[in-house]
UniProtKB/TrEMBL annotation:
It catalyses: 1-O-alkyl-2-acyl-sn-glycerol + ATP = 1-O-alkyl-2-acyl-sn-glycero-3-phosphate + ADP + H(+); 2-(9Z-octadecenoyl)-glycerol + ATP = 2-(9Z-octadecenoyl)-sn-glycero-3-phosphate + ADP + H(+); a 1-O-alkyl-sn-glycerol + ATP = a 1-O-alkyl-sn-glycero-3-phosphate + ADP + H(+); 1,2-di-(9Z-octadecenoyl)-sn-glycerol + ATP = 1,2-di-(9Z-octadecenoyl)-sn-glycero-3-phosphate + ADP + H(+). It comes from Odocoileus virginianus (White-tailed deer). Monomer. This is Diacylglycerol kinase. Pathway: Lipid metabolism; glycerolipid metabolism. GO terms for molecular function: kinase activity. The gene is DGKA. Residues 388-522 form the DAGKc domain. Its EC number is 2.7.1.107. Residues 90-125, 135-170 form the EF-hand domain. Residues 185-269, 285-335 form the Phorbol-ester/DAG-type domain. Keywords: Acetylation, ATP-binding, Calcium, Cytoplasm, Kinase, Lipid metabolism, Metal-binding, Nucleotide-binding, Repeat, Transferase, Zinc, Zinc-finger. Diacylglycerol kinase that converts diacylglycerol/DAG into phosphatidic acid/phosphatidate/PA and regulates the respective levels of these two bioactive lipids. Thereby, acts as a central switch between the signaling pathways activated by these second messengers with different cellular targets and opposite effects in numerous biological processes. Also plays an important role in the biosynthesis of complex lipids. Can also phosphorylate 1-alkyl-2-acylglycerol in vitro as efficiently as diacylglycerol provided it contains an arachidonoyl group.
Length: 751
């Protein structure tokens, strides 16, 4: 379809009044006509027979209007509707097209028989999605009655468009939303087993130290899968997305284990990610799968499970309990989702919005602008009703962060949580996840990536105009991870137990972090600047020596990315560029090239010899350097001078007072530090020197530069021609601070 230039409307014309009219039987076509439709639409000479037959059969259904459709034909309107929905275009255009398709008498309204055909198509789609169709027909009939807003007994185009843009996911129900399908594909990972395990299919031993396949995120990387792990003779097309890292949110994990040779014969993964019937909504049941009892001990009777002798035991996909086969009758029906229940959205909490009552649908109207933005996605088709007194976790993962760590974290969270709450940022960005969770109360966000990824998510939250702004935690996968350090989530994820990290997240507290707007006003000059990377500061802004080092690092990484594939290599490159900068001093006498205003008052730099100025929102830069330095707090009030000064101290420049100032993420003030050179930055990083030169603490700052200088925002550098830079307070964002570390030697403002 992507390679074809044809549109469904082009093909329809040929069947209605063109050279293909001979194949039309009323509003139906036979198998030969269907083949012709595919050839013309896809612009191919031949369509494989098995594909044509499978598609033809998929349009045949038991839901027929009597005497209108025979079993050896399919409805041309249904075929056209389905393919048109997969084409690009605006939602309202698709709605209008589907209306005209089902308005068979072309009178501009849908009468009862035409509405019946639409319900049949929706029933077919529901059956494909494995929904309980027995309860769905009366719901759809009632829904279609609600679309008749004027009570005339028929549906006009205006009513159809109004319904599709507000309360009723018409295009979803007619077949657009393919991610609603639990695809049944196992997430196969190659794995060498350090203990005897048994194949879930043939039940024979895989062998100690031998490689098999596991529907489990703890296997090796997808790169390994794409090579030796694929069974001999199998082509890429036979394996599909179950082998790649770019996984659909509809995938699920069951810990099925098989030989390589048994993978193609394995039964589909039957773990559902959402409720498909009203009876499944609200209470989650255990989902038991044979095998996978890695602990070797029964959670019911506490006796050993003899996992080394045969395929024995059961484990629950959602609560991860492991039991004997004989202990199953003693287990209750209800699953509480185990130790991570506070974070998990069980399938019983996610259900098709069409299964909501009519009153619920009426009270959740979506604006036309929102529909345009949604592109009729999962956020419209599914509804979330979380378990009471829980805090569902929305997880965003940047798979490219931290080398292969990002991919592994993505797979592991898809296993620990519901895959529908884990989003791959490289696939569609953060917007689908934010829309899906939009109306969920008390949810939290976990961002797995570097500082740049965190900034991306915070900016997206800003733009989303959410009714509730969720607090954000960070799993650091980047190089610097300065914000994660300040929020007690560590300087970098090194493969620790994610379950423990999620338990730490339960004990976290909310702090409202300041965020700052940056306005760059260039002067009239013939020189050209690099584009400004960000217009919001979350961590820090700097001019001069450290930005020069970062800019050289950035240029080299863009040119030779293969040389920057680990944190250790990155630090060595930084050291090399810092050494070079200390020799050449490209930003010497910086104070002669700029002036600084603090809340409208000039800052005197005449007595200083600086090569850089840093403006700090958090007390960590360059992967752990505290340029402001440690502050010995006065006895008594833990907030010391910050609390005593209150709102009156918008500007502090007195050196004696600055000595006692403690950085605070939420005080609506910035710390300004002068840097004497690259050597001083290295001394601060290695703790040989406590801090740079404390210049000010303020709520607004303006720079005027007279020559091209290196600058950076949150680690992203650029070269800027002479300009004026204004930094002002923007807003505050709720962030989650990890539990206190055992060691007391940490940034004071968080203790």
């Amino acid at each position: 379809m992507q390679d074809s230039t044809k549109k469904v409307s082009d093909v329809l014309k040929l069947f209605e009044d063109g050279e293909m009219a001979e194949y039309l039987q009323g509003d139906a076509i036979g198998y030969e006509g269907f083949q012709q439709f595919l050839k013309i639409y896809l612009e191919v000479d031949n369509v494989p027979g098995h594909l044509s037959q499978a598609l033809f059969q998929s349009f045949q259904t038991g839901y027929y209007i009597e005497d209108t459709v025979r079993e050896d034909v399919v409805c041309l309107s249904d075929v056209s509707c389905y393919f048109s929905l997969l084409e690009g275009g605006r939602p309202e255009d698709k709605l209008e097209f589907t209306f005209k398709l089902y308005d068979t008498d072309r009178n501009g309204i849908l009468d009862s028989s035409e509405v019946d055909r639409i319900i049949i198509q929706m029933m077919r789609m529901a059956e494909y999605l494995d929904w309980d169709v027995s309860e769905l027909r009366p719901i759809l009939q009632q829904m279609m009655k609600e679309i008749d807003y004027d009570g005339s007994g028929s549906v006009s185009l205006a009513e159809w468009l109004r319904a599709g843009a507000t309360t009723v996911p018409l295009l979803v129900l007619l077949g657009l939303e393919m991610t609603l399908k639990d695809n049944g594909q196992h997430m196969w990972r190659p794995k060498r087993f350090p203990r005897p395990v048994y194949c879930n299919l043939c039940e024979s031993s895989i062998g100690l130290g031998k490689q098999g396949l596991s529907c489990n995120p703890s296997g090796e990387t997808a790169a390994a899968v794409s090579g030796a792990a694929r069974p001999p003779g199998e082509e890429d097309a036979g394996w599909g997305s179950s082998w790649g890292a770019d996984l659909s949110p509809s995938g699920a994990v069951c810990k099925y284990v098989v030989h390589d040779r048994c993978a193609m014969k394995a039964l589909p993964c039957e773990v559902s990610t959402y409720a498909k019937s009203r009876k499944d909504i609200g209470v989650q049941s255990h989902v038991w799968v044979r095998g996978g009892c890695e602990s070797g001990r029964c959670d019911r009777c506490q006796k050993k499970i003899r996992i080394y002798h045969s395929l024995v035991g059961l484990h629950c996909v959602w609560c991860h309990l492991e039991i004997h086969d004989d202990c199953l009758p003693a287990m209750g029906h209800e699953c509480d989702c185990g130790l991570l229940r506070d974070h998990i959205l069980p399938p019983s909490s996610i259900y098709p919005s069409v299964l909501a009552s009519g009153q619920e649908r009426k009270t959740s109207k979506i604006s036309q602008k929102t529909v345009d933005d949604l592109s009729l996605s999962t956020s419209e088709a599914l509804r979330i009703d979380p378990v009471s007194n829980t805090h569902p976790l929305l997880v965003f993962v940047n798979p490219k962060s931290g080398g292969k760590q990002g991919e592994r974290v993505l797979w592991k969270f898809q296993y620990l949580l519901n895959p529908r709450q884990v989003f791959n940022l490289l696939k569609d960005g953060p917007e689908p996840g934010l829309r899906f969770f939009r109306d969920v109360p008390d949810y939290r966000i976990l961002v797995c990536g570097g500082d740049g990824t965190v900034g991306w998510i915070l900016e997206s939250i800003d733009k989303a105009n959410l009714p509730f702004v969720p607090p954000v935690a960070v799993l650091p996968l980047g190089t610097g991870n300065d914000l994660a350090r300040c929020l007690r989530w560590g300087g970098g994820y090194e493969g620790q137990n994610l379950g423990k990290i999620l338990k730490d997240l339960e004990a976290s507290k909310v702090v409202h972090m300041d965020r700052w707007s940056v306005e760059v006003i260039p002067q009239q000059t013939e020189e050209k600047s690099d584009p400004v990377p960000f217009h919001i500061i979350n961590n820090y802004f700097s001019i001069g020596v450290d930005a020069s080092i970062a800019h050289r690092f950035h240029i080299m990484r863009e040119k030779y990315p293969e040389k920057f594939n680990s944190r250790m290599k990155n630090k060595l490159w930084y050291f090399e560029f810092a050494t070079s900068e200390s020799i050449f001093s490209t930003c010497k006498k910086l104070e002669e090239s700029l002036t600084v205003e603090i809340c409208g008052k000039p800052l005197d730099l005449s007595s200083l010899s600086l090569e850089g100025i840093a403006v700090l929102n958090i007390p960590s830069t360059h992967g752990g350097s505290n340029l402001w330095g440690d502050t010995k707090r006065p006895h008594g009030d833990v907030h010391g001078i910050n609390q005593a000064l209150g709102a009156t101290a918008r500007v502090i420049t007195d050196p004696d007072i600055l000595k006692t100032c403690v950085p605070d993420l939420s005080d609506k003030r910035l710390e300004v530090v002068g840097l004497e050179g690259a050597i001083e930055i290295g001394q601060i990083y290695t703790k040989l020197k406590n801090a740079g030169h404390r210049l000010a603490k303020c709520s607004e700052i303006t720079f005027h530069t007279t020559k091209t200088l290196p600058m950076q925002i949150d680690g992203e550098p650029w070269m800027q021609t002479p300009c004026t830079i204004k930094i002002t307070h923007r807003n505050q964002m709720p962030m989650l601070v990890g539990p206190p570390p055992r060691s007391s030697n940490f940034f004071g403002f968080l203790c």
